[in-house]
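Quick question, first post here. What does this chain look like in 3D?
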Amino acid sequence: MFFSLKIAWRYFFSKSKQTVINRINGFAFFMVVVATAALFIVLSAFAGLKDFGLSFTNTFDPDFKLVPEQGTYFTVSDDVLSKINSLPQVIASAPEIEEKVFLSYKEKNQVAYLKAVRPDYTTVVPADRLIALGEWLSFEGPDVVVGFGIAGSMTLGIYDYSSFLNITVPKKRQNTLLNQDPFTSSPSVVSGLFQISEDLDKKYLFSSAAFGQELLSLEKNQYSSVVIKSSEGIIKETLLKEIAPFFEVPVRLVSREEQHAALYRMLNVEQLALYFIFSLVMVIALFNVVGALIMMILDKREQLKIMLALGADSKSIHRIFFVLGLLICGIGGAVGLLFGGLLVYLQSKHPFIFVPGTRLSYPVLFEWENLLIVLITLMFLGSLSTAWATRGLSKKVFFYTSSSPAYASKTSSNT
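> Answer (accepted):
Ran it through. Tokens below.
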């Protein structure tokens, strides 16, 4: 094996007497570099876009959400919250009420989701930092904080006492008379507007937990979920086993990915599709390596004859060109990853590509996982292409050497 590696290493750096073969080899190496760099840059750019897009929902959503296994609401006492917060894996936790409501303001109506929270909610989700106009909840009256999307569609203003925002929900108990109103409505005042993303801004509004419990006719300690901020690397099943004994009813833990399962599934499918598309580009680039190896086999016929005369066997000859193909892929891939990594680093630290029409730098994210994926993909496809280019070489090596010009002239002179 050392003999094959040494000869392949020499062939990799040596030049042929024929200029066309040198150009073919150089072009094959260049294409490996470009394909490797392109795949790494594209994966890094997608990772940056994915991280940039999820940063909005990650700010708005907790690490975990604890919900009842059955039903909509469950009892969460302060003693239970203290036990949850005492766990070493939990940084902070807070209860919340989330319910679909009907909003009406003057002659405009809209459906939204009400999040009724306590003051300790901001220790888990920093919603108070998302306020773009006005103030966060005072927790002393019927004030609410709505998204910019809701405010824009309903023309809401902050602290507008001339007309109140009415929040309406169906009554939970249906023991009402025929002429009785089946809905519960409560007026509120908008104290602030938050801005995250278009989808979230037109979907949610916040109120105090007391306001939500009164609107929904709930008990003091009744909530729909408990949001949890945890340490990094926490396993969901392990955390659930420690929290479940604190409750009298069965509960389940929902991770951030599960809260937006459709979004994460879509992003993963898009990333996989992007990976396969640029892997196909790499396959096309490796066809140049196949051609370069075939040309080098034909070019080195005289040297192969000498090696056979010195005692080398056909399998050693086969290994030489197989290792040569791996060297082209390996060294070309290393150069491509170095070049791609340098561009990704420069874009992240000193941006030179911006989103069209803005001064926002195009997001990229350097991940060792992507580097490893590119390297494994290149070597796997490179091994297949090299094996295909050198297939049957151990059986054909005598044909290649016997068909050389020197061999032909020697045969004719003997004749």
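Residues 62-256 form one domain.
The CA atoms of residues 39 and 278 lie 6 Å apart.
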